[in-house]
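Shipment paperwork, digital attachment
Item: protein structure file
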Amino acid sequence: MNKYRTHNCSELREKDIGKNVKLSGWLHRKRDHGNLLFLDIRDHFGITQCVIENKDKNFKILEKLKPESVILISGPVIKRAKDTENKDLDTGLIEVKIKNFEILSSSKELPMPVFGEQDYPEEIRLKYRFIDLRRNEMHKNIELRSKVISFLRNKMIENNFLEFQTPILTASSPEGARDFLVPSRTHQGKFYALPQAPQQFKQMIMISGFDRYFQIAPCFRDEDGRADRSPGEHYQLDMEMSFVEQEDIFKVVEPIFYDLFTKFGKNRKVNKNPFPKITYKESLDKYGTDKPDLRNPIELVDVTKIFSSSEVSLKIFKENIKKGAIVKAIPVPNTISKPRSFFDNLNNWAIKEGASGMAYITFEKQNNKITGKGPIAKFFSDKAVLELLKICKLTEKDSAFFVCNQISEALKFSGIARQKIGNELKLIDNKKFNFCWIIDYPMYHYDEVEKKIDFSHNPFSMPQENISDFDKKDPLKILAHQYDLVCNGYELSSGAIRNHVPEYLYKVFGKVGYSKEMVDKNFSGMINALSYGAPPHGGMAPGIDRIVMLLADEKNIREVTLFPLNQNAEDLLMGAPSKIGDKQLKELGIKLDFKKN
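Attachment content:
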């Protein structure tokens, strides 16, 4: 018999009444009723109420015991009084009468409570993460994470993928985010890098003749944190397939994600596969982002032509259009009953977000004629109003906001405003998961800071051009076989069909200024491997953290990460990053040289 328990704290039921049992767990909370003391004992599985009378010799000891102390109790299972039953607990119809107990571990005064699920400052929560993880919501999130990973692993194996582990210590790569570097003791002056992703290794697995690979891969990037991105490390379902085209990958991935989100989505509806495919250009035009939330029915409309016509006399917009600006309309349905303050508040919000504001028009019908109302309505002719209604698919019950700016800024802000308005009007169904693919990404973009052409996505992707036509085409018009899986406004995965032809890789890198010698130096392993016969291959890498964040209905990725760094990339629990002693530095051949402020 187990020394510490006969049952866990969620097992006991009415059928166990009369049994003598042992339970071990944390003292979740106490309720002193004078003649009776009730103790909730909690373990990983659940909670059981225990009771002791004041005449018992152990009463005073338990009365003084601090919450979160770990105790073992033994005694008979009894039925709860009718007025004390708790239908919300699996064990809510019974309790255990304490005959004997043992304190297995005493707790100090808690820095934060476990019972009650109160909000607490993140600094405290991360410093005492082992306590924070005892709280029911956090505990369930991490349990969900484990189940999601197990589910994905099993699905991959069912689909004939083999699981491999790629190196953690590798060479620094010049593309992508900043590397985390690891100094070498045996090769002083040289450094390993932690992998930003297993990109090159997984391609070499395909070149090695394996057909389908996956792993739950840790990835390390020295980049700033966000609510949906950890600052130091993250995990992804890394996968690669040989002899495939883009559509082959979609056909494998879509059923897995449909099943995953159906199983763990808390009864939220998942759109069925095949998932919609939206080109990168169409996504920016309609939604202002390449991560659209398709639960929001609002679609942006380009109305630059209307505003630049003689039917509209809004001078400031016309002047900006002449300087290269565009005008994006945000059609807003069913606002006829909204007060003026609704529109003014959105305009004020836009100003706080750094925009110059958002012009708007509302519509009304009088004498069988629809006219515009609002601050800029007087600048529109009747013909312009009708054209606006038609192109934006609006009625007299609706309205439209307008964003006028240079293309990239107009698209970006109108996309943010679209989501803001969708939330304000409660147009977004929170009981849905809407997946889509964003496809046809541009291979290159123009870097305004560096004043040069650079990669817009993954440099190892296959361009959508024959190698013989590649040099004839404007680089900024070349599309790549790249794709993102998006759900509810979050990018869950990036992927691509890989460029498996060395001669073509040289051409692709040449467009951003890499000579053949530079490519050979920086990507020697990859070029060498591709030179000995490589299959056409492709893959993707869905982010585990974001998947679990969506399924758990959390807004911050740290809520689904076991021991995360804070926003400043600090581990408050273990005290990292930390200073290194002179002895270790000497072994590594490193001397620190800090410049004084």
